[in-house]
Design brief:
With 280 residues, the chain is of the alpha/beta class. The chain has a single domain (44-272), classed as Vaccinia Virus protein VP39 (Rossmann fold, 3-Layer(aba) Sandwich). It is built from twelve helices and seven strands. It has helices at 2-7, 9-18, 20-33, 49-57, 65-81, 99-112, 126-138, 153-156, 166-169, 179-190, 204-214, 234-241; strands at residues 116-120, 142-147, 172-176, 193-198, 218-227, 247-250, 268-272. It has a seven-stranded mixed β-sheet, sandwiched between helices. The longest helix has 17 residues, at 65-81. The protein starts with a helix and ends in an 8-residue tail after the last strand.
């Protein structure tokens, strides 16, 4: 953001004029993140995280695997046919959700059959698309997505473009703003959520805020998914404070090398809120 302010002061002023409180909050979070350590956290990733998650929740080993693989190929092909770049660095240097991250969420959506899903971070809306596709196949549920649109007007037009049909959009509420301001208000209004997904600003301060804010509203038997956990220690610290709830450090699972995130790490985390066994 600091570089954007220097290069495009008029665009920044326009953005501030549209919502000065969110703009100030974003600037503050960006500023404070500069004082955090930039050394990656070396979590012991579990290569068998998928089997562990399925066992903990009572999900069959082959449940939803084939349908995800088919849909993944279809969506990637569709977006490329529309001239969209997908994968690492495709959204103003940010990444679309990669295959492992999105597949974990797909499995949870299809098995849990959630009625209330909240995510932070949208970009092209790759993860949002799969959440909504899963809810549509379930025949129930809604998604609320919080994200502050980028200042760049061209990139701003690409927010959520992966969610292309009105059928999917009818289950979707997009909230433009920072999670610092918007998430507590949304959770107070919803009361309880079944699935929470963090994929917005990955500073340690923001990850800790979102996890601690969402956790009390997450129902027993629900799940929390956190992307890019290797960028700061907040996920590990949260897990240490809640040892009674199973957690998994997961590795990305690229279908093709060009769809893997550029840092070649791809760690994300899952926390399951006990009790775990769900009726299905």
């Amino acid at each position: 953001m600091f570089e954007t302010v220097r290069r495009h002061p008029l665009k920044v002023l326009t953005h501030v004029a549209q919502d000065p409180f969110d703009a100030f909050t974003a600037f503050q979070e960006e500023f404070l993140s500069r004082f955090e350590s930039k050394d990656p956290v070396r979590y012991p990733a579990d290569p068998n995280w998928d089997a562990g998650m399925r066992e903990a929740m009572g999900i069959a080993p082959d449940f939803a695997r084939a349908e995800f693989a088919t849909l993944w190929d279809e969506v990637i092909g569709e977006l490329r046919e529309r001239g969209m770049k997908v994968g690492p660095g495709s959204f103003h240097a940010w990444n679309d959700g990669d295959a492992g991250f999105v597949r974990a969420i797909w499995t949870l959506i299809r098995f849990m059959r959630p009625t209330t899903v909240v995510e932070t971070g949208v970009a092209h809306g790759m993860t949002s698309r799969f959440i909504l596709e899963g809810l549509e196949r379930n025949g129930e549920g809604r998604l609320w997505s919080i994200d502050l649109p980028p200042i760049n007007p061209v990139t701003r037009q690409e927010v959520g473009v992966a969610v292309a049909t009105e059928t999917l959009r009818r289950r979707w509420t997009y909230i433009a703003g920072t999670s610092r301001r918007r998430l507590p208000v949304l959770l107070d209004r919803l009361g309880q959520v079944d699935l929470f997904i963090h994929d917005s600003m990955h500073s340690g301060r923001n990850v800790a805020f979102e996890m601690e804010t969402a956790w009390p509203r997450l129902r027993a038997g629900g799940a929390m998914v956190v992307d890019d956990i290797d960028l700061n220690p907040s996920f590990g610290r949260f897990v240490e404070r809640h040892p009674e709830h199973p957690s998994f450090v997961c590795t990305a699972e690229p279908v093709t090398p060009d769809l893997r995130r550029f840092n070649q790490k791809g760690l994300f985390g899952i926390v399951l809120k006990a009790p775990l066994r769900l009726e299905h």
